[in-house]
């Protein structure tokens, strides 16, 4: 990197660091935008965010967990660009109990919509994580067990995790994002949000 490029990068970092970054626990059923989408689902407008912020990336309405918001557009590139290597970690409840072969296939990459997913990290969550009840609850089938997986990946195509587990024969029942890079959902309850501290921001900006 040349001196000029280094200076430009430093100036950009300083500008981004002066912006607002918010960690939000998006509840099930909420769409990741401030305007209605024609359905009856609630939007981000009902959670009292500061003015001029918008979501960085998105979570599907039927997914839960960590969603970041900011008033600075350049956070998108810092967080979502796969070349920067920022992991997103999900806790995934699936129908059935995948074996070692299915976990290996997920880690190596599976073919969805004509393309192969990048390698990722997959492990079992056993025992199941102690999490909040969902409203409405997931469907319960007495004759079919369910299990929890931890999936950490560096890309985020539309409904990718759900399509990945379906590709190996285990449909996703519940999907919770618990981490983006070094930022964790922590003890935020559904619908709660907080301003991300400067030390946490550096976990992303210095990457």
Question: What does it look like?
Answer:
It is a single chain. With 207 residues, the chain is an alpha+beta fold. The chain has two domains: 3-81 and 187-205, Pseudouridine synthase I, catalytic domain, N-terminal subdomain (Alpha-Beta Plaits, 2-Layer Sandwich); 87-180, Alpha-Beta Plaits (2-Layer Sandwich), CATH 3.30.70. The protein has five helices and eleven strands. It has helices at residues 3-17, 75-80, 100-108, 160-167, 198-205, and strands spanning 21-26, 54-56, 64-70, 88-95, 111-112, 115-116, 121-124, 146-153, 172-180, 183-184, 193-195. Strands 1, 2, 3, 4, 7, 8, 9, 10 and 11 form a nine-stranded mixed sheet that branches. A two-stranded antiparallel sheet has the order 5-6. Strand 2 and strand 3 (64-70) form a beta hairpin. The protein is globular. The model is unreliable at 3-14 (pLDDT under 50).
Helix content: 10-25%
Q: Kindly, what is the distance between the CA atoms of the first and last residues, rounded to a whole number of angstroms?
A: 15 Å
Number of beta-strand segments: 11
Report mean pLDDT, rounded to a whole number.
86
**CATH class identity of the largest domain:** Alpha Beta
Broad shape: globular
Kindly name the structural category: alpha+beta
Number of domains: 2
Strand-residue fraction?
25-35%
Task: Give the helix tally.
Answer: 5
Q: What is the fold-level CATH name, i.e. the topology of the largest domain?
A: Alpha-Beta Plaits
Biggest sheet overview: 9 strands, mixed
Poorly predicted ranges: 3-14
The CATH homologous superfamily of the largest domain = Pseudouridine synthase I, catalytic domain, N-terminal subdomain
* CATH architectural designation of the largest domain: 2-Layer Sandwich
């Amino acid at each position: 990197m040349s001196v000029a490029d280094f200076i430009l990068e430093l100036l950009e970092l300083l500008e981004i660091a002066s912006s607002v970054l918010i960690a939000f626990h998006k509840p099930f059923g909420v769409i990741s935008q401030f305007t209605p989408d024609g359905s009856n689902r609630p939007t981000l407008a009902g959670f009292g965010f500061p003015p001029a912020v918008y979501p960085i990336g998105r979570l599907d309405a039927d997914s839960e967990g960590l969603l970041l918001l900011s008033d600075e557009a350049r956070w998108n590139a810092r967080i979502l660009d796969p070349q920067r290597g920022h992991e997103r970690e999900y806790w995934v409840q699936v129908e059935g109990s995948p074996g070692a072969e299915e976990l290996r296939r997920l880690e190596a990459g599976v073919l969805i919509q004509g393309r192969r997913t990048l390698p990722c990290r997959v492990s079992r969550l056993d025992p199941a994580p102690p999490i909040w009840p969902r409203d409405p609850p997931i469907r319960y089938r007495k004759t079919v067990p369910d299990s929890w997986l931890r999936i950490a990946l560096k890309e985020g195509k539309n409904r990718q995790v759900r399509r990945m587990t379906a590709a190996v024969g285990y449909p996703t029942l519940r999907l919770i994002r618990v981490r983006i890079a070094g930022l964790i959902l922590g003890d935020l309850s559904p619908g709660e949000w907080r301003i991300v501290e400067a030390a946490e921001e550096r976990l992303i900006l210095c990457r």
